[in-house]
Request: fold
Amino acid sequence: MPYTLLTDEELFAMVRDQGDDQAFRTLFKRYDKRVYAYCLRALGSHDDAQDVFQTIQLTVFDKRASFHDGSFAAWLFTISRNFCLKTLRGRKHTVEITDEVITVEPEETHSSDFLLRQALHTAISRLPDEFREALSMKYFDDLPYEDIAATLDITVALAKVRVFRAKKLIQQSMSTIIDELR
Reply:
């Protein structure tokens, strides 16, 4: 049977029990973009995200014997979250001055679209951490509520509540901007 037809858990069993490199590459390929995007959002730096992403990949392989059942995605994102939090705690409290690249939007892009995107980005960034993290996992990482709950070590009901409240806070925050654009 081709590796791509196997479930995450079947592939990981092959990795854990046989050290199957091809199964590991197939499995990690399924999640690499989402894990990297999660790290980038959490850390805000491509360099840090790349470093943590590589550490996650090595850790998943090294700790393969510790995963026995449950959702592989939840286990993977729990490891990812822990490494991102560890990296954030380890940062020095300094402000780094960097050159920022300014890109010009295509002419057909309307200023209202830009303002709306900016408002959404601002609204998401202002959410309390627990709401922003749950919302990010749901809509950016495409994780089911069960995996969000397992990753954050909360109940499924609480994961749903956090996503719902995050959406409500964003809606409230953006309502005046949306009214102005009408």
Summary: Residues 130 and 162 are 7 Å apart (CA to CA). DSSP finds eight helices and no strands in the chain. Confidence is low (pLDDT under 50) at residues 93-109. The chain has two domains: 3-90, 111-175.
